[in-house]
Amino acid sequence: MTASERAPGRVNLIGEHTDYSGGLVLPIAIQLGITLSFEPADNLELDAPGGERLARAVWEELGRPAGLRGRVEADLPQGAGLGSSGAFEVAVALALCELGGLDVSPLELAQTCQRAEQRALGVPSGILDQAASLLGRSGRALLLDCGTFEHRWVAWPDDVAIVVLDSGQRHWLEASAYGDRRRELEAGDPQRVRHIETETARVRETVAALEHEDMAALGPIFAASHASLRDDYEVSTPALDALVAAALSAGAFAARMTGGGFGGCVVALAEPERAEVVRDVGVRGWVVRPSEGAIRRRTGSTPGRA
Ligand code: GLA
To answer: If you measure from the C-alpha of residue 17 to the centroid of ligand 1, how many angstroms do you get, rounded to a whole number?
Structure first.
């Protein structure tokens, strides 16, 4: 293989299920990701078990710009709610742009990948995962308005560790109620709407707390987000609720479910010296860092490009 692209997974700090209604999200790209080694070919030949449909959809959405032979390696767990599908789509899209000489802006590319995912998986997912994988920055969280695509980066404090805990429940959005939630929201169901309104306010409160270095404020904000996802949006599970409680008992000062729900992961915040204890609550876990998105990892990419 002659070239490679690496696309990171993501953890959404707050702003859950807000992307597809044009709300605010605050994700980070993480150090775990997907690497695609590739070379030119006549067709699309990818050694990516389970990823063929997604890769083909990305290829179609980009207008089949080039053929590609590729091999995928990942240290990002698949299907755990850490944006593995989005990262895979982004890696494939960047490789195809490279081979086909396409110059697509990061947000256009994120939308292309989102359309590909909707087409391939039949789930009306938002743009959170792809945008985070492309636009993440080291040491910063991405504040994105999914309605206007306006975005900026918010500094993440060095003295707050981010711990991700995997419930082990696989969420498989296709089989889940993700599409139902979106329809209920669009139909104006008061409980679903209330979650979106309160969650949007919580994203703003989180950004304000980060900008004022008021970390103590994050505990109640994360708790309210989790409660709203559990009670108003009804996408949490007893396993996720128990994991949030376990993280808090182990010394985290904030914890909530992250991602689409129905399984997947919990995100917890802790003082760095407590991070390992929180990570060690008995399930698979990672201490993650806000990391460079796929665009800025690229050789020769210019820092200001995003
Ligand atoms: C999944 C989707 C995202 C977003 C989250 C919930 O990860 O892929 O678009 O809707 O759920 O915030």
So the answer is: 6
